[in-house]
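To: structure desk
From: M.T.
Subject: fold request, one chain
Message: Could you run this one when you get a chance? Sequence is below, nothing fancy, just the single chain.
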Amino acid sequence: MSEGVITGLSVTGCVLGFLLNRAYARKYGDAAIQWKPFVLQLICICGALSLLPGDGVSSRFLFWIAASAVAYAIGLWLCRQHTKKQQAEPGDTVCAMAAQAVLPFGAALAVIMIAGMVLFGFVWAH
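Reply: Done. Structure tokens follow.
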């Protein structure tokens, strides 16, 4: 994938997730994002992105993909429980769950890009 596409996906994911979370927080007084699962989602996605397969799929890549699926299931379930507890409308529940799904992916792309720029910039400079 080109760097423009990756940057676009990262910015779109971060901005969309932030806006959905902010809209939910304004309406219900509490953030839609469940932050502990968010961190788990972010770590698992970064692990999978760091091992993107070139010629073949490694067992470590499959582990991170499976861990990401579990982290997403936990995050979305906890987000849904949170919205049920706040008696959110069905449309707001969908928006909250979309924020929980989109923001970690956009943030993970940003983390990987920034880490790559810092690491490879440091390596190339020395």
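Reply (cont.): The chain has a mean pLDDT of 91. Let me know if you need anything else for the meeting.
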